[in-house]
Amino acid sequence: IGLDTSRELVKRDLKNLVILDRIDNPAAIAELKAINPKVTVTFYPYDVTTPLAETTKLLKTIFAQLKTVDVLINGAGILDDHQIERTIAVNFTGLVNTTTAILDFWDKRKGGPGGVICNIGSVTGFNAIYQVPVYSASKAAVVSFTQSIAKLANITGVTAFTVNPGITKTTLVHKFNSWLDVEPRVAEKLDEHPTQTTLSCAQNFVKAIELNQNGAIWKLDLGTLEPIQWT
């Protein structure tokens, strides 16, 4: 989803796209550059589970290079309920840390210009897959956290919304473990449901970014973009 979304983004009128990831993929970066040579695409190695101080240090480097950053997309995620602590660290704690770190640069109380945060949740955030309660709860936490950030926009100048994909054809759902092995065939059973392609998900993802509705909870499922009402 992240790569296809990046492909869609560079087709737009961007100045810069910065990719942060644990894995360096020069071929993917070269492809993004080739799609639209007017967009400067850069890569920095980054593990979202790194401590807050390290995240802030990396952002200082990026802001020094670019001067301004308009949008932060938090997209890291894993699906494996055997790895309880890592699931929470990647899916939720890391997202909280990157959000907290970028507020140092964006918060209008510190003279910052504000900004936009787009967090990738999941439909499991409001409709749990009960066989993977840790994953589902981590995504519910993302939705809840983002709603709070959105309601603080008048204080910080930072707006926020979530995009929540339904079942999408990615490596994430090919094979994964259920909590306490309550359903050994969870991946196979999930695969029996209708799915969407990463491209159709990415296209709606970019639509949500362009709409930029503070506090929105977008459901991206089966090629549709639908607002969710959740209080």
TrEMBL record:
Whether NAD counts among this entry's keywords is yes
List the keywords (alphabetical). Answer: NAD, Oxidoreductase
Q: E.C. number, please?
A: 1.1.1.1
Superkingdom of the source species: Eukaryota
Q: Name one GO molecular function term.
A: alcohol dehydrogenase (NAD+) activity
Ranges in coiled-coil conformation: none
Q: Does the keyword NAD apply?
A: yes
One of its Pfam families is adh_short
InterPro entries, alphabetically?
ADH_Drosophila-type (IPR002425), NAD(P)-bd_dom_sf (IPR036291), Sc_DH/Rdtase_CS (IPR020904), SDR_fam (IPR002347)
| Any one cellular-component term (Gene Ontology) | cytoplasm
**What is the catalytic activity of this protein?**
a secondary alcohol + NAD(+) = a ketone + NADH + H(+); a primary alcohol + NAD(+) = an aldehyde + NADH + H(+)
Q: Which SUPFAM superfamilies match?
A: NAD(P)-binding Rossmann-fold domains
The record, for PROSITE patterns, names: ADH_SHORT
Annotated GO biological processes are: alcohol metabolic process
Enumerate the CDD domains for this protein: ADH_SDR_c_like (cd05323)
| Gene3D superfamilies on file | NAD(P)-binding Rossmann-like Domain
Subunit composition and interactions:
Homodimer.
Family, according to the entry, reads as follows: Belongs to the short-chain dehydrogenases/reductases (SDR) family.
- Which named protein is this? Alcohol dehydrogenase
| Organism name | Drosophila neocordata
Q: Which gene encodes it?
A: Adh
